[in-house]
Amino acid sequence: MKRLKRISIFMLTAIMLLLSASNSVLADTTNYVTGNNNSRQPVPECYIVTETINNIGDFEDKNIFFKNPQDLFIDCYDNMYVVDSGFKRIVKFNSDHVVTAIYTCPGKAFNKPSGIFVDDDGDMFIADTENNRIVHLSPDGELVEEFGNPVSDLETGSVFTPTKLLVTNTGYIYVANNENIMSLDGNGVFRGNYGQTNIGFSFSEMLGRMFNSEEKQLFAKKRTASSYINLCYGADGNIYATSNEREEGEIKKLNAIGTNVYRKYKTVGNKMRNPIKDWINNNILKAVVAGTSFKFGEYFNDQGMYIEPKFVDICVDDDGIVTVIEGLNGKVYQYDQEGRMLVAFGGLGEQKGTFTNPSAIDVDSKGRIYVLDQITANIQVFEPTEFITNIHEATSTYLSGDYQKSYELWRKVLATDENYDLAHVGIANTYYKQGMYKESMKEAKIVGDRGVYTLAFDEYKYVVLREHFLPIILLALAIIIAVIVLVKLFLKMANKGYWDFIRDKSKPMSIPRGIAYVFYALFHPFDALEGLKNNRARINWAVPIIIFAMAYAVRIGYLYVCHFPLASIETENIHPMLELVKLLAVPVSWIPASFMATSISGGESKAKEITFASSISLAPFIVINLPLMFLSHIMSQSQKSWYGIFTALAYIGMFIILFIAMMVLNNYSFGKTIGMMLVSAFLMAVLWLVILLCYVLTGRMIQFVISVINEFRLNFL
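Predicted structure:
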């Protein structure tokens, strides 16, 4: 146990060293978007701070400045309402940002109000949090009604502490209330919880219910869904919300029945959770795999530290542009209706254009963004530039069906910034809608958008099939016949190689015979491995090296030849040495690990046949991926699941062959083979750890030597 504990400590230390080396401070970019690998790509200036509102001006009130402001709201006439929580008031500004009214609650004063919604008639609905109520004020500030704990025959599930709220066109009130959005009708009657996140299935919780005593079950911690943070009402009638939900996505677009129809990280269902895997993912691997998939906001802040975003507020303009403010790094992020980032700007700081603790955001009819800062107690007004205005118009005209105008606007965007990827995506979409599939595929490929490429390719494939049906059918038949003939010749060659080696015991294994033997083992692993065991002295060391080289050549060829929508990596990002390590890490490290494991447990295998068996394990990879790289050109992401099955079979085949090799070469029973495979896997992990530590320490040593040399040059030369 002590040894395992030391190894665990070493592993965690190595990972932290790697993370500290890789997570360098990110470049401070004023306006940017994040690319496919979540790297920042600078874009032209999108928003300019034109005004900062620090106080209520000349309006008669002894408290001229704000104190702990919590929320702001801009109505349909561009009037702005600020929830000035510290002074228990609502401050109203007109469209020229001049204070026209200050409201306090008649009768019982506000107690830390934190949210406000104003309807088209000017009626105000205030979340009076510490008073556990919602206050409805008329446009003149008179008390119309108040809503306390909702009346219901059902259990509402929690104490009524409203923070953020909205009122729909039907008169229903929706309140952010912990893990739920609570729905109330116009009479304050509870109508149900809305938009709750699926918490999934917990295996450990099920075991607890089965075996724990009733007393323990009473005190067991109840799992709850992720909490909602803020919400707003879109012109499309949907509710847009932010939450702490990390599985499906922190930004949600909820339809009439509370289903999230916005861009999702992945599908969430009643899946069985693995507590060990969850712990590893949550505590170790998150920062390691960061950047490999889409994420709202960013994986890292400006200091290079991994963060989980907390979007404190959200707003949506009439064109469906979604804008959120993130509290931990002070960034404003803007997305279109497909969940694609349009721009990011802002940050933490005290200079103009940055924030210390942003608490609210909203947008007016002119596209100006207002950000409320709780600490500095001011509001910054951001004016959109022509560049971002063109982007907004291009997305809105596309949604309205005016594809030609959208195309022209995206061209204007590219004229300003030819590297703005979303413009190429927009043009690809307009081409697709107009039936110009080849052009759409070309534009989508420029920026690596596999989704749009797949849509265009699938349509283009059907067009080609309709136009050239007979020639394609004849070609397909010819290919099938050729494949059948080649497979028969391949099997014949493999059988001949095996029997020539087994029968002719006077000669060592030749290279052609050895290669044929490897592929025979793919179909008859027990016979082939038994033959190796009985003829180990005649094994040719060159054969496994050639097989390793063949597998590597297939891997590199696969990366360059595989059809774009199914490719796992961009060709410009291919690192041959890294691919070599990824491919051979398991089969090569299995050789010493297996040898060490079997040597101490009465095993019979020697290094020669272990090495040969390891090369055999790559035969499925070669046989599957060689034709698959060419077959991929008639497939797209629509067939990704089928394509993935073949890819998985290559690795499953590798494991099966290594398992059989362990059993046959050492004459183990099935149960002992399982145990020795686990021991070998542990030894492989230790070997990788040692190599990883050597790599990290060598890099640090080189850095140290370089710094010493530079210091010597500065002081003595």
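Summary: The mean pLDDT is 85.
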